[in-house]
Amino acid sequence: MKVEFLGSYVKDLPQDNIKEVVFVGRSNVGKSSLINMLVGKPIAKVGKEPGRTRAINVFLLEDYIKLVDVPGYGFAKVSKEERESWKELMERYFTERKNNIKCVFVLIDSKVGPTELDRLMIEWLRHKGINHLAVLTKSDKADQRELSKSLKELKRIGVQKVIITSAKEGRGKKELLKVIMEAKAELS
């Protein structure tokens, strides 16, 4: 699979018409690991501590669609000012790039289930009319009870479709790539 790192952005966002698939979620949910699993190589940096992604990291997949790794929300060992600048960056990104975004993958830890911040993100995306999909990560670390509880909670908040993934085991790769390929088909 051909993938190219285009850059990290904290201010000037790229101005082009290339469609995007965005990975959002709380800090340490596994956004970078999931991107690496999808493309089959370690292109996104994976941190050992929450909050490593501090910019919008953009990758070009197969010359036609961008994979966008954004800073995580929630726990991160950063100052209040830096957290506020991330929030402003995210709001600007979603406002300026709304027409380019084909889908936002909202990543949620399978063991933890949707947090209040995850619920707020889903509600915000609904309010903005941005296409999104819930993705449960780290399913290899969740037992059946935890996984069932997470799915039940997602259903309770109105999420109809969920893709269950494990970057470690490759679970969900085919389903996520199908969503990305559907975005490619819409471009043709």
Secondary-structure blueprint of this entry?
Layout: E1 3-9, E2 19-25, H1 31-39, E3 56-61, E4 65-69, H2 80-96, E5 101-109, H3 116-128, E6 132-137, H4 144-156, E7 162-164, H5 173-187
Parallel strand pairs: 2-4, 2-5, 5-6, 6-7
Antiparallel strand pairs: 1-3, 3-4
InterPro entries: G_ENGB_dom, GTP-bd, GTP-bd_ribosome_bio_YsxC, P-loop_NTPase, Small_GTP-bd
Family: Belongs to the TRAFAC class TrmE-Era-EngA-EngB-Septin-like GTPase superfamily. EngB GTPase family.
Protein name: Probable GTP-binding protein EngB
Query: Mean of the pLDDT scores?
Result: 89
What is the beta-strand fraction? Answer: 15-25%
Q: What is the distance, rounded to the nearest whole angstrom, between the alpha carbons of the first and last residues? A: 19 Å
Q: Count every helix, treating DSSP H or I runs of 4 or more residues as helices.
A: 5
**What is CATH's topology name?**
Rossmann fold
Structural class computed from helices and strand pairing: alpha/beta
Flag low-confidence runs.
none
Beta strand count: 7
Keywords: Cell cycle, Cell division, GTP-binding, Magnesium, Metal-binding, Nucleotide-binding, Septation
InterPro entries: G_ENGB_dom, GTP-bd, GTP-bd_ribosome_bio_YsxC, P-loop_NTPase, Small_GTP-bd
GO biological process, one term: division septum assembly
Domain EngB-type G: 17-186
Could you explain how this protein is built, in words?
It is a single chain. The protein is α/β, with parallel strands linked by helices and 188 residues long. The protein is built from 5 helices and 7 strands; from the N terminus they run ββαββαβαβαβα. A 7-stranded mixed sheet has the order 1-3-4-2-5-6-7, with helices on both faces. The mean pLDDT is 89.
